[in-house]
Amino acid sequence: QVQLVESGGGLVQAGGSLRLSCAASGRTFSTYAMAWFRQAPGKEREFVAAINRSGGSIYYQDSVKGRFTISRDNAKNTVDLQMNRLKPEDTAVYYCAAGPTLGRPTIAENYNVWGQGTQVTVSS
Predict the structure, then answer these.
(1) Strand 58-60 relative to strand 46-51, pairing
(2) In angstroms, rounded to a whole number, what is the distance separating the alpha carbons of residues 124 and 117?
């Protein structure tokens, strides 16, 4: 089973950009579908983006389409989330997640390994 560590969070002004990265340990990274979720204070965890094992299938939450890009590098065991044109409503703790398949990509229960999260704060 992989272990996941996120990095790249921080404070940015509205309209700015951040790139989150999730590093996975272990040799089986390429067998996992990967996703990013986020949780804002007082709100439930919500789906942001997902990518299948090969990178050929990608899903986004409607509110981030055209602004966020998920990508993976199976040789480096990483999955990234490039976030552009950030908005204050993007403020949240962002979590990287891994699951055996991408059967239900927007559902948290689809993933069985989670990172510790990284804080993203967007000021207005």
Answers:
(1) antiparallel
(2) 23
Identify the three-state secondary structure at position 81: strand
pLDDT, tens digit (0-9, with 9 covering 90-100), for 102-114: 889 999 999 999 9
Rounded to whole angstroms, the Cα distance separating 105 from 108 reads: 8
Q: Are 89 and 74 in contact (CB under 8 A)?
A: no
CA distance linking residue 114 with residue 80, whole number of Å = 15
**Tens of pLDDT, residues 81-97:** 999 999 999 999 999 99
Q: CA of 75: how far to CAs of 16, 23, 25, 29, 32, in Å?
A: 29, 11, 12, 9, 13
Radius of gyration of the chain (CA): 13
